Amino acid sequence: MWRNAEEMEPDLTDISRRLKKYGTLPVASPVVRDVLRSIDLESASFEQTATQIERDPDLSLQILRSANSLTSSFTGRVHTVLQAVKLLGFSTTKALVLSSVLLDRSKVHAGIPELWSHSQIVSLNARILARHLDFPWEEEARTAGLLHDIGKVFFYEEFPEFYQQAFQLGDSPQAVPDWKREREVFGVDHSFVGNRLIQEFGMPRILSDPVLFLHDPPAELMFPQLTQVLIVADQMAVAMGFGSPEFDFVEPVFVDALHRLGLGGVDVKILLAEAHSRSAMVEILSL
Question: May I ask the CATH architecture of the domain 110-287?
């Protein structure tokens, strides 16, 4: 029986136990399993990966939609799975496949569609930022954007009643940031869980570390620029109206991240204008 958050005591043992079953991804589709195995091989090729994806029409459609929403504004329309995989790269393709599995198994829970839309916009914003700042890791920025809230899927699935309570406060001025409320109730937040899941799925620390420090970064970071880009991309999405349903306010960490990246008010206006113009494609292709 679920109790009110105020009545709960953090139980890290319980969280750890629940997380163990996510260590091996529960994949129902052999196509998805083969795609993930292929991407992880040193001999991986775009052609082989695309051929395997094409065995699953639903997965093919999702990859094509995502490629068009995340890249078409920069490169033109994507018509084939092979084009999509080449444009997205292996890391982003893997992130999309992992997300599709986790989101599909959790789609019955409230908030999942909004969570996916938010993650896609953060991914788009991260790529825009990387280009604006002339940083060399566009694919990593885009991939981290897709995965940054994957830890919420765990909480949505394991503790749906908790988020039902949080949704009721999402647009209230009294709302506490989601990650703070999670720490109070569970002892860890969705960024910590997301970091664990990303590492369990065999993805590098350049992706997992920025996710871990998304809301509460320490003074010293292993990947400072990518972490700050992810923070700005996330907060931009909220400012654009693509926030998560359980907390819909821009946080103070946004200003500090802008400062550390050397971005001023004019930069923000330019970035938001570009993000708004490109976000329509994400909305259309998410229908």
Answer: Orthogonal Bundle (1.10)
Whole-prediction pTM value?
0.84
107 φ/ψ angles, rounded to the nearest 5 degrees: -65, -15
DSSP three-state, residue 244 = strand
Q: 197 — phi, psi (to 5°)?
A: -65, -45
Cα distance between residue 97 and residue 92, in whole Å: 9
Residue 246 has pLDDT above 50, yes or no: yes
| Buried-exposed string 264-281: b where 16+ CB fall within 10 A, e elsewhere | eeebeeebbebbeebbeb
Distance CA(125)–CA(127), nearest Å, equals 5
Contact predicate 121/237, CB 8 Å? yes
Angle value at C-alpha 80, between 83 and 28, nearest 5 degrees: 100
Cα–Cα separations (whole angstroms), residue 95 to 39, 147, 149, 268:
11, 7, 12, 27
Q: For the chain, what is the radius of gyration of the CA atoms? A: 18
Q: How far apart are CA 32 and CA 59, in angstroms?
A: 8
pLDDT of residue 147: 92
Residue 41's alpha-carbon distances to 46, 51, 84, 274, in angstroms, are 12, 15, 19, 36
Asked if 211 and 223 count as a contact pair (C-beta separation under 8 A), the reply is no
Domain boundaries, the chain: 20-105, 110-287
Q: How far apart (Å, rounded) are the C-alpha atoms in residues 129 and 115?
A: 21
